[in-house]
Each structure stands twice: as structure tokens, then as C-alpha cells.
Amino acid sequence: MYDTMRSSTEKIDFHVHCVPPSYREYCLKNEYAGEGHPDGMPAIPAWDVNSHISMMKSLNIKKSVLSMSSPGTHLTPGNDQDARALTRQVNEDMSKICKDHSEHFLFFASLPLPDVEGSLAEIDYALDHLGAVGFQILTNSHGIYPGDPRFNLVFDKLSERGAIVFFHPTSCHLRSEDGSVTRVTPNPGVASPVLEFMFDTTRSLTSIIASGTIDRCPGITFIITHCGGTFPPVLSRIARFSPFVFLNEDRVSNEEIKRMLETRFYFDLAGFPFPDQIHGLLRVVHSSRLLYGSDYPYTPFPLVKSLSEELEYGLRQCFGSASTEVFLKNGERLLSNSKGGGGRV
Questions:
Q1: How far apart are CA 71 and CA 119, in angstroms?
Q2: Taking a C-beta distance cutoff of 8 angstroms, is the pair 340, 164 a contact?
Q3: Beta pairing partners, 292
Q4: C-alpha distances in Å from residue 190, one per residue of 101, 139, 186, 197
Q5: pTM above 0.90?
Q6: Alpha-carbon distances, residue 59 vs 64, 158, 307 (angstroms)
Q7: Fewest beta carbons less than 10 Å away: which of 15, 149, 300, 314?
């Protein structure tokens, strides 16, 4: 438990995880999950409900919107049956946590992508029976990015249901013609969350812009992690190259991309947005599109606490008293518009 001075600013945490015992056990035995070393990290962090609630109280977090972290719930390429079972198990685990501690928790359900049929079934089940407020989708699913036409039915369903979609980064993967999947490690010895998570976030966001998914699916509200990754500084480059690389072969201007980001997206500030990264994002979106995120427990509590303090200071310097909008009001507005089963805050 955490015995520390309570933060003064009330918050809703949109980038925060849980590690149910069944999921931990499965990951420890699965080679594609790193056998306990996900994405090159030293270990799967310890987690339990009571410690999480204690952390929330010490940082004045009103609600935590739980989700699974990378490597997600489809761990073995080609094994859709196991993925459906594990996805259902962790979604039911998160639903039970939220029902037992409704004053503290909401959750984003997982989907067993790239299994499209299983994901379509899980969308309805999670919303209609488990009370999910939205869905977490990895930035790539065994090498398939979210704008890929193979996922059109899934995003069409999510739009039909008016869903919040929270993109969480994962390691980059390459899919060969024979269907085999390889995790890419450009810098051996450097765990994926250090750099690759930022780049894969950018690949994923570019994918849904280039594919036309955003315009085709008007019912979805997207959340992008870690201050937009490396996307803001390359936005103009993507726009200028759009006639050559976008699937619809139409040019997309800087202004059009910024309009999409301002109207369809929120960005969480998990990680290290200050002192530098935040300023690139604020050239692209208004502060009303920013959300708090702790990344607990994959970020351990002492670092969560110090980052929260840095964020409070940095946002006060940028926005003065309006910084409370980022921590609380923006999130309340987002959840109040959610069509999920547990959006009350």
C-alpha cells in the first residue's frame, strides 16, 4: 500500500492496466508473450486491486479505466480458439473488478484481433453483458495494422455501436506471405516501450488516416497514447506524401488531418510529455483533447507519482487553472458521451 501525501488535483486515468492472475499465468508460459518478459521488458509487473486503489487515493484519481497492456490477448499467431477464450476470460475478469469496485473502476474490453469473427462477437458481448465503456486495440495485430481492409467489418461494427477505441502500442511485427509472424527488434537490448511503442503508435495512426477508416466510421472516438507518439512532427510529411501512398489516392492536407484529430481523437499524456513532447502535440490539437494516463503498473508507483507531479506543474505552466480540464473535465465529457455499459463517472 502507498502511504504518501494526496495529490491536490482530481483525475480520471485513461491509460492504466490490470494483470489478472489468469492472464499472468498464460503469459508466463507463452513464447510469443516473452514468457514473462513482454516486449523485451524485465517482467510482468505485480498487480492487485487493493494496491491499485491505494495508488488511486494517493494521486487523487477518481476513476481508472482499466485495459490490458501489450502483448494483448491474441498471443499465438493462428490460434484463434485460444485467443477467443483468453480474451473472454480477461474481459470477464475486468468486468467483475468493475462491478465489485464500481466507485473506482471502468474498463476498455480487449478484442482477439486479428480474428475478425471472434472480435465481432466480443464487441456485442462486452457492451451488452459486461458493461465495457469501449475497447482497447493494439497498434498492430500480428503485423496487421488497424486500417487494413481485413479489419473493416470490425471498425464498421465499432462505429455502429458508437464505441471509444483506445489504441495501445505494441512491438512492431512482420507478417510473411506464409502467415508466419516475427517481432521486429531494430535495437537489440532496447525494450520496445523505449522507442518502438512511439513509432508503432505513429504507424497505427497513419494507417487509419490513409485507409479512410476515420471518415468511414463516424461513430468511433479514438484515444491515442503517449502524447501521439512521433506523429505530430511528421504530420506535414504524411500530408504531402498522401497522393502517393494513401489507399484512396487523394491528397489529404495538413488542415484536414488536424480537423480529424481535433474532432475524432483524444490523446493521453502517459509517459514523459514534459518538458518537450507536449509542445509538438499542442501545435496540432487543443488542450480539450488531452487526457491523463498513469500507465500503472507497467510504470511503477514511484515513477507514476513523480510523473504526475511533473505533469501537474507543466500543465499549470501551460494553462493555469484550466489544467484541471485535462485531468478531469475532458475525461468526464468523453465518458458521458460513451454508449458503453458503464460510462457514469
A1: 16
A2: yes
A3: 13
A4: 37, 19, 9, 11
A5: yes
A6: 11, 33, 11
A7: 149
Report how far residue 165's alpha carbon sits from residue 26's, in angstroms, rounded to the nearest whole number.
Answer: 25
User: Residue 36: is its pLDDT beyond 90?
Assistant: no
Integer angstrom CA distances of residue 107 from 322, 334, 342: 27, 14, 8
What does the domain layout of the chain look like in residue ranges?
11-336
Q: What is the mean pLDDT of residues 29-41?
A: 84
Read off the DSSP letter of residue 174: E
Task: List the Cα angle 12/68/56 in 5-degree steps.
Answer: 30
H or E element that contains 12: strand 11-17
Domain spanning 11-336, CATH class? alpha beta
* Residue at grid coordinates 478531469: 328
C-alpha cell recorded at residue 247: 489507399
Give the residue-averaged pLDDT of 148-164.
97
Question: What phi-psi label fits residue 226: left (phi over 0), alpha (psi between -120 and 50 degrees) or beta?
Answer: left
Q: What is the pLDDT of residues 270-313, one digit of tens each?
A: 999 999 999 999 999 999 999 999 999 999 999 999 999 999 99
Cell of 311: 505533469
State the Cα–Cα distance between residues 275 and 278, nearest whole angstrom.
Answer: 7
Asked if 168 contacts 131 with a C-beta cutoff of 8 angstroms, the reply is no
3-state secondary structure of 211: coil
Backbone phi and psi for residue 61, each to the nearest 5 degrees, phi listed first = -90, 115
- Per the structure block, which three cell numbers stand in for 339? 454508449
Q: Confidence band (pLDDT; 50, 70, 90) for 246?
A: low
pLDDT recorded at residue 182: 87
**242 touches 285 (CB < 8 A):** no
Nearest to 94, CA basis, from 59, 60, 52:
52
